[in-house]
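Protein 1 of 2
SEQ + STRUCT:
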Amino acid sequence: MLALAVTCLLATGSQAAEPGPHMLVKLPYAYNALEPYIDRLTVEIHHDKHHRAYVANLNRALEGATAYSAMPVEELLRHLDRLPEGTRTGVRNNAGGVANHAIYWRCMGPGMGGAPTGEMAGAIDVAFGSFGKFKELFTAAALGRFGSGWAWLVDDHGTLEIVTTPNQDSPISDGKTPLLVVDVWEHAYYLKYQNRRADYVAAWWHLVNWDEVGRRLKAARPPAQ
C-alpha cells in the first residue's frame, strides 16, 4: 500500500511546528503558484488556516490516547476500530483532514495538467476506456458530491475506481489507496468561484500533477518478486 508518510514531511519556514506529534506539511510550491486557476489567497487560507486546524485538532484528539499519538496518520485511518471509542470520531475527522489535504496539495502543481502518460495512462484506459471518459466520470463525481467532501481516483487492490467521500472521510479507511483527489469543500474555491463548483473543477484539471499520481500508482502496485 502507498505510504503517505504525512508525519515525515516536517514544516519549515512559515509553517511552524505544531504542538504535538503531527505537523503541518509544507506546501510544495508558492502560494501564488496555482494561479490563475486557484488564487493565492485561497491557497494561503486553505493551507495555513484550514489544514493547520486539522493538524492541531488531531493532536488534541490524541491527547487521551497516547498509545496511538505517534502512529502515522495513514495507520490511524486504516485502523480506526482500534482506537478508544471516545477518541475515534475526533481522530477520524481530523486525521482525514490532515491526510486528505496532504494528498491534495501534492496532486497539483504549476505548469501541469494535460493527460497522463505511460503506466498511468494505460491503467486509466484499462479501467475507464479512455482518458476522456475517465475525466468525464471523475468530473461528474466531483460535481455530484452533495455538500462538503472529496472526489478520488483510488487503487483498490489492483483495480482503479472513482469514489467520493463526505466531510473528511478517507478511502484509506476502506482499504483503498488514494492516487488523485480534488477537494470540493467550498473553502477550496469560494473566494474565486463563489458557488460555481463546476468552474473550479474545470480549472483544477489544468493543475493535475500526473507525475505524482503515477508515482502513487507505482507505490500501490509494486513489481512482483
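Protein 2 of 2
SEQ + STRUCT:
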Amino acid sequence: MKLLGKDCEVDPHVPEPLPLKKFMVYIGPAMMTTALGLGTSELILYPRLTAEFGTGWIGMMVLSLVFQTVWAQQMARWTVLTGEHGVKFNSRVISRIGALVSITFFMFIGFAIPAWASVAATALMEIVHWPASVETGTVFWSYVSFLLVFAVIFLSKVARSWIERMATAATLLAWGLLIAAAVTTIKSATVADMARHVVLWDIPDKMNWWVLGSTLAWVGGGPTLLWYTYWMKDAGWGMACKFGAIPGGLGKSIKLRSEGLFPEFTPVNIYRLKVWIRRSNAVLWGAYFVGSLMTILIVVGLSDTLLRPKGLVPNGFEVIKHQAVFFREPLGAAGAVLFLVMAWLFFFNNQMAISEAVVRQNADATVNFLGLTNIKKVYFSWWGVYLVISFALIALQYFGGKINPFSFVTYSAMLTLVSLVVSVLATLIGQVVLYRAFPRELRPGWVSMALLAAGFVFYVYIVIRALAAFFGGKA
C-alpha cells in the first residue's frame, strides 16, 4: 500500500470488536476527555462569561462543541483504522516537523502552565483557610496537588489506568450534583433566555473576546481531544490493540509501535472496522457530546440564576470561590463545602490527565523523531522536565499581579488554540488525501468535511478577535 509516498505495513487481520462488557475500554478515554472539558472550561470560564455578560453567547458554545465532536470523530476513525493517534494522522499531512512545531510544541507550552493545580489550590484555600496569604497558600497547595499527581502516575502499572477510573467517578458524581442543583435552582426565565440564545446570538459590544475565545477553544475540552486518540490507542481500539500501552512507574518497559498498521480490505475486516467505527461514533456523540452539552446548559443556567444577580464574577485568585453558591442554595453551608471538595477533586484529576497527556505526547514525539525504543525511560525523563517547568511557573503566582490561576487558564487556552486550528485543517485535508486508499464504506462522508471546513473558518475568526482584544488592551 502506498500512502503519501511512504510504504505502509499491511496487516491481514483486523481484531474482532471487544464485547461491550469491556466497559472501560469503550467509555474510559471518552470520560477522561469529558472530565477535562468539565474542569478546563465549564467550572471556570462559563461562570465568568455568564456572570459578566449573560447568556447571549451560548449558541456559539453549542456550535463549537459540534465542530469539536466532528473533529474528534474523524481523528478517532483514523485511530481505529490504523492504530495511529491524531497527531500522527495530522503529521501525514503537514509533515513530522510541521506537527512537532504547530501541534506538539504549542500543546506543551500551553499545558505546561499548571493552571489546574493552581485552581485546585484555590478550592483548598477556601476550605482550610491556611496559609493566611492567598498568594502563599495558592503556591503551597499547588505544589501539594502537583506532587500527588506525579505519585498517582508513578505508582500505576499502566500510566492512564487510575486517571481513567478517577475521571469517570468524578464526572458521574459532578453530573449528579449539577443535575440536582439545576432542578432545584435554575429559574424558568433563565431557561427561556438560554433556549432563545442557542439560536439567536446576542454578543454584547463590551464582550471580552479574549475570555470568550478561551472559552470557545475549550468547550468540551477543545484541543485536548487530540489526546483522546492517544488514550484510544492505549486502550486498544481497532488496529491499535496491537500497539501496546505506556507503562506507569510500576509497569514493565515495553517497545511501543508508532507507525500505523493498515488493514487488508477483506469483507470480514471491513465489517469489523465498520463496527469499531460505529462504536467510536456512538461513544463520542452519546457520552462526550451529550455530557458536555448538558454541562454547558446547567453551569450557564446556574451562573445566570445565582452569580449574575449578585455580581459575583470569578477572576484572579477567586476563580472557583463564587461557584460554591451552586450547591449552597439547594444544600446549605454543607453544600458549599461539598462543591469545593468536588472542585478540588476535579481540578486535581484534570491536572493529572493533562500532565500525563502532555508528557505522553512529548515522549511519543521523541521516540518517533529520534528512533528510540525505551518509551518508559523517555516518558519519565519528560516528567522531570515537566515538573521543573511547572514548579517554576507555580512560584510566579506568589508575586500576584496578572500571574494568577485565572490568567493561567486563559493563556493556556489561547496557546493551545493554535494546535486546534492547525489540527482541524490537517484533519480536513487528510480526509480528502489519505482516505483514497480505503474502501468507500470506511471513508468519512461529505457532511463531516463540510463541518470541518466551517469549523476551521470559525476558529480562525475567533483567533483574530481574541488577539485583537488582547493587543488592544481589552483582554
